[in-house]
């Protein structure tokens, strides 16, 4: 990733004044929103249209991300293209495409994600790049959906597309698209999604072109440079406030890789030292992380990810700030170890890297907390179910194939001043509505709600997970399921307790009840079976006895906490839907002792 920053000479005023800077920032954000709306409304597959698993971004003329989406797993998206297609060879109407994880050094981190990148020109001058990115439902591989715990190498996870010129000066490489779509079991979806993704980028090129026409290429370049400098400066200031000189370390873990291996430890350190020039130097070190997994939970972490995650934490959702490469550029060095879980050696599988990604983000929160910062407690990792099989068409009675990839929300960690978020998938992505599932797939939802007691107890309660109960209407079905944080649930902090774990049950309460492995494939279900999915919750923050009794009562009445757990964990006695104040006061006099972290028990350090 380029370290390009604004280096205006002292005394030389910027080309872009503060008012114009904000106008340009807003115009770019509006262009992004319009690109995303077009993609959402025209895509075919549910994971894009309903789940909203897509992102857009604007890069400056050097390929540095100047305005991105609020997603903490972006890396250096343009260098893979620029290395093969130098900027001086590009021309208006070009469009570039890739999904090559290893070839992009983790800029894209599993093969289902397709990246399209287009240059923006003005009077023959390269001014910017526009990107749209989306998760495609099926690109080939060992099983429908292309993602499976069964995978042992990336070739089993679908077709790999190296950086490719998809459109050259307005002429589309139709042969490349035909090869790609031919590898999908559901080519109509693939064709529709690619058209939507291409249209989104085309719209972005036109909208950014209009901004250049209005303000000029030099003013836009200066505005993007200022936004990068502003973010980098803010993040470095916040890092210095959080981390004193020295080294801070934190360890988190994922349970398994689906092949009987694990747990796998993620070990991070962040060092602040004084450089020879007297400036601060921040070093992020992940080299102590465990070796790569045989199964598909490896996360090929781009070097920009730690700084992006820290940057988003310090930006704190402030709409006046911009998510961009200023976060990654605030970290002076990122150290990874070849052959580790976070820098696996090709062709290690990557399809279920989402489990590890979520643990990485929680571990970064842990680093901030160890240094005395105020990051949230750990969150659970969002759950994926992939259902594939055959159903009988009501019109002609013929068996037809279906693929349902259902991403299900979980509980997020409590914050220093607020409860964790309940039932959230990841950032802005959404849970499928009941009506959509029942109309589009051979399932019936019998139950959909909050998992009681799944949020970690604390002064601020961890977010709660979701329960979904499907009745299978298909003639037959194979199920792949991805749940983590069962053996190593999300940790609570400062007295807050860890979050609850998820589970998968077939035919709950019946004679043929069966508990499935939380990371497994090849689970066969038939018509009439009941599948219950329960997802985990986030860790709590602060001592549970410090939670206001009325808030505990509200949690009980709302179905988030049981009456028994209110008394046992929070010291709040509830009788007939009313807080027994005297009994609560007496119970809370015997305040349990706590330690810094909680994961099944209180500990000073998570090892």
From TrEMBL:
It holds the Pfam family Hydantoinase_B. One of its GO terms (cellular component) is cytosol. Transmembrane segments: none annotated. Residues 17-544 form the Hydantoinase B/oxoprolinase domain. Coiled coil: none annotated. InterPro entries: Hydantoinase_B, Oxoprolinase-like. One of its GO terms (molecular function) is 5-oxoprolinase (ATP-hydrolyzing) activity. Signal peptide: none annotated. One of its GO terms (biological process) is glutathione metabolic process. This is Hydantoinase B/oxoprolinase family protein. It comes from Martelella lutilitoris.
